[in-house]
Prior knowledge:
- The structure holds 2 protein chains of 2 kinds.
- Chain A is an all-alpha fold.
- Chain A is built from 4 helices and no strands.
- Chain B folds into 2 domains: 41 residues; 119 residues, Protein of unknown function DUF881 (Alpha-Beta Plaits).
- The chains are: A mainly alpha, B alpha+beta.
Amino acid sequence: xxxxxxxxxxxxxxxxxxxxxxxxxxxxxxxxxxxxxxxxxxxxxxxxxxxxxxxxxxxxxxxxxxxxxxxxxxxxxxxxxxxxxxxxxxxxxxxxxxxxxxxxxxxxxxxxxxxxxxxxxxxxxxxxxxxxxxxx
Amino acid sequence: xxxxxxxxxxxxxxxxxxxxxxxxxxxxxxxxxxxxxxxxxxxxxxxxxxxxxxxxxxxxxxxxxxxxxxxxxxxxxxxxxxxxxxxxxxxxxxxxxxxxxxxxxxxxxxxxxxxxxxxxxxxxxxxxxxxxxxxxxxxxxxxxxxxxxxxxxxxxxxxxxxxxxxxxxxxxxxxxxxxxxxxxxxxxxxxxxxxxxxxxxxxxxxxxxxxxxxxxxxxxxxxxxxxx
Lengths: 136, 228
C-alpha cells in the first residue's frame, strides 16, 4: 500500500517537475541540500511506518523543517565562509543509510519467514503423500 | 499516513526533477553561473596567462627594438659607404666638380716660324698645375685622370694633332684647373713659368682666374684587367 503511494507521488512529481519553470542556477545549491534533507525525511518516514511509530506531525515538521534548516545553514556557511552544507550532507546521508538498513532488514526478515513457511508446508504435503502411499 | 508520504514523495521528486533540469540545462562554464572559488581560480589563471603574454609581448618588443637599432646602424653604415663612394668617385674623376680655379687658353697663331703647341707643352702645363696642387684638371673638357694619356699624333708631319683620353683635341686648348688660384697661377707665370716661356716665344696664352669653374667628369669606363 505504501509503495503504491510512493510510486504515484514519484510519477506525478516527475511529470510536473519536468514541465516546471526553470529556477536560477544561483539557488541550485540550496535546492540540492533541501532535496537531500527531504530524501532523508522520507526514508525516516518509511522506517517509522515499518516500526509502527509513525507520527504525522513529526513527519511533516521534519520534512519541511529539515529542508529549510539545511538551506539556512548553507546560507550561513556561505556568509561565514565555512562549508556547513558538507556537514548537513554527511548527517543526512548517514541517517539515510541507517534508515535504509532498517527497511532492508525488515523486508529481508519478512521474505525469509515467508520462504520458511512455504518450505514447511511443502514438506508437510510430501509427508502426507508418503503416508497416503504407505496406507494404500 | 500513506497519503502524507505520497505527498512528501511528490514534493521531493518535483523538486528533484527541477534540480535535474537546472543542472542539465545550465552551462556551468559560463561566467554568470560560476561559484566564487571557481571565478577566483579562473581569474588567477587568466592573470598568469596575461602575465605570460605580456612577457612574450615585451620580448618581441625588445627584439623589434634590436632589429630597429641594427637597421639604423646599417643605415649609418650605408650612408658612410655612400659618402666614401662619392668621395672616391670625385677623386677618380667620375663626377662633375665645381670650385675656384684658373682657366688657361692657348690659341693657335698664324706665325709660321714657331712650332705649334703640342702635347709636350700641354704635359708640362698639366704637370705644373699638379705640382701646384690642382685638384681637378681638364683640357677641352677632357678630364685628366690618373690613366690619362696626352700624346702627339703624326708628330713629324704637318697634320699634327693631340690626343687626350683617346680623343682628338684641336686648338684652341682650354685648360681648366680647380685649386688655389694664386698657387696655380704662380706655378705658370713669373720667372721660369712655362706660360711666360710660351709667351716669349710668341704664343697667345691667357690665364683667367675664376671663382667658379665646372670640370666635367671622365666619360669612359675605367676598366682594369690585370690589377688583382
